[in-house]
Amino acid sequence: MTHGRIAKWHVGDSSSDSDGDSGRGGRPHVSEYDILLTVDTDSLVEAAYRLDQFAGTVSLLVESQEDAHVAALLAAEGEEVEVGRPIAVLCEDPEDAAAHKQQPQRQYRKTWGPGAQIRGRDRAPGA
What Å distances lie between residue 102 and 14, 24, 30, 67, CA to CA? Predict the structure, then answer.
């Protein structure tokens, strides 16, 4: 898979009100294994099947790997994103999530795939 389209966010960010209604149908706090978002992709299908007339997409449910507070959603529903591009900011502490809203807009670096950087160095693909 090289890219996907964010079909639906199942969570909200820290600007949500206290009862968890974020306006995006989600919650600002997530528990381990909660569904964060649905991603649609056709690149996975093409790579897996390689059929000439197969046309379709695969919908992937992306789960949280731990309890967290959603500080920011960096990509909108319907947006096409490449693998490795940051799409959300999750924090362990609710105060950190709230403080994130007070900070100036940050640039987030690509974390996986060709051109990814870790600690300021280029990471070799597959490393």
Answer: 11, 21, 21, 22
